Amino acid sequence: METLDRGTPRPILLVDDEPGLLDATRRRLEHALPGVDLLPFLDANEALRETENRLLGLAILDVDMPSMTGLELAEALHARWPELPILFLTGTTRESATEDLERLGVVGWLQKPVRGQVLIDAVRAHVLCD
Q1: What is the pLDDT of residues 77-91, one digit of tens each?
Q2: Which stretches does DSSP call E strand in 29-95?
Q3: Is 3 among the domain residues?
Q4: Does residue 9 lie within any of the structural domains?
């Protein structure tokens, strides 16, 4: 079993409006990082409400979602926790984003479908631990 080797990882927020992709991402992370608390949500507004009082270690967000985009969610999360790293896992190209991604804490932009090891390496590189 591999660990993050940096203490106890904080929970990882996963938000994707596609149930199959959300479940696949969750399963990959559960398998590769046993013991890490994963908070999966299909809806960005629900994710924002349900994590209001949670200290997070990483947010993995889809960009194109119906009620609130990943960029809008990133901005709301950044307002709460400026140090929170955000990783976009999306089918959208980076060039289509007009926001200043670094300002929002975006540390990576992975194209779907992403290989499992690429995702795991990105999570290990950026998740915050206590």
Answers
A1: 999 999 999 999 877
A2: 38-41, 58-61, 86-90
A3: no
A4: no
